[in-house]
Amino acid sequence: MARDIGIDLGTANILIHYKGRGIVLNEPAVIALDKQTKDVIAYGKEAYHLIGRTPPSIEVIHPLKHGIIENFDLTETLLVLFLNQLQLSRWFRKPNLLISYPSNVSEVALVSLVEAAEKASGARVYTQPEALVAAIGAGMDIKEPKAQMIIDIGGGTTDLAILSKGEVIACESLAIAGDTFDEAIIQYLKKEHHLLVGPQSAEQLKMTTVSALWQEKGPKQGTIKGRDLSTGMPQALSIDSNDLLTCLLPLFERIVFMARQLIQDLPPEIASDIVDQGIMLSGGGALIDGMDEYLSRQLSISVIQADNPLTCVAIGTGMLLEYMNTKEWKQPVKVKKTSFWQRIKGLFIRPRKEEDQ
Asked: Which amino acid positions bind ATP, per UniProt (predicted)?
C-alpha cells in the first residue's frame, strides 16, 4: 500500500507531510559538499550548522533560491536523501506526491521541479500554487464563493494570492522575504557598525529583536556577536529594534506596495470581499513581531496571523492529498499534473534565470 506525501520545497526549509503521520520532516534546504570529490559531507540541519564554519575544502550550498531550483542535481540529491528516510521502496504502488511552487514560477522551471521530484521519489507528482496550499493549511475555507486573500512570507519569496471557489484568481510573487531581511541586517551592521555577522546570527536577531512597528517608548533591545572589521577581533553589539527597522522598512514597504496593487486591480465586488474577510498572514515572516499589525495599518484591512505560520504549506499539502482521495475529488480545487509535452519542452528549453522570472 502506498503512502501519499506532500512537500513544501522551500528556499530555507524542506518540510514533508506523510499521510497518516503528519509532518515527519522539517530540515534546512542546505547541503555540504567536498569541493574536490563532490561527495556529500552533510545535509539538512547538520549542513546548516556548518555555515561559516567550514574548512576551504568544503562548501555549503543552498540549491534553491527565491523559490526556484538553482541547482537541479543538488535539489534532486536533497530530495532523495530526505525521502529515503520514509523508505519509499517498501511501498507496493506508486505514491502520490504533491509539491507546492511560488506563483511566479515559469512553466519551464515548474517542469524542472516536477522532474526532480519524480526522479527522487518515483511518485506520481502533482503541483499546486504555494499560496493556495498555505491557505488550506491555515484553515481557510477556499471553496466558498467569497474572495479571500493570503500573504505568505517565506524564506525566498513572498506570495500574495486572491482565492475564490478553490482557485487562485489573482496572484503576485515577490523575491523579498526572510532571506532578504537577513541580508539587509548583515549589510546594515557592516556599514553602520563595522560588524561582520553571519546569516544565522542575523536571522536570530530578526526573530528576537526586530519589530515591524516603530517603538516610540522602550524599543526592544538585542545583542549580536560578530567580528569587528576594524580590529579583526570578536565583538558583541547591543542594538535596538528601531535601528534595525531603518534597514528593513523599505523591504516591508515593497510587500505593502505589491499587496495594495493586487487589491486595487480587483473588481469592486472582489475587493469588497477582501475588506470583509480580512487577509491571512502565513510563513516564517509572519512571526516577525508586529508584522500583522503593520500590514493591517498600511492596507487598512484586518490582517490575521495563521495559527501555524511555519507549517501552513506542509499541512496544506497533506489536507489536499486527503481531499484528492474523496468522492468530492472533481471540483472545486484543481491540482496540476505535468503533461508529457511539458516534460519534453523542459528537456530542450533552459529555465530562465532568477532575475528573468
From this structure: 11-13, 155-157, 203-206, 284-287
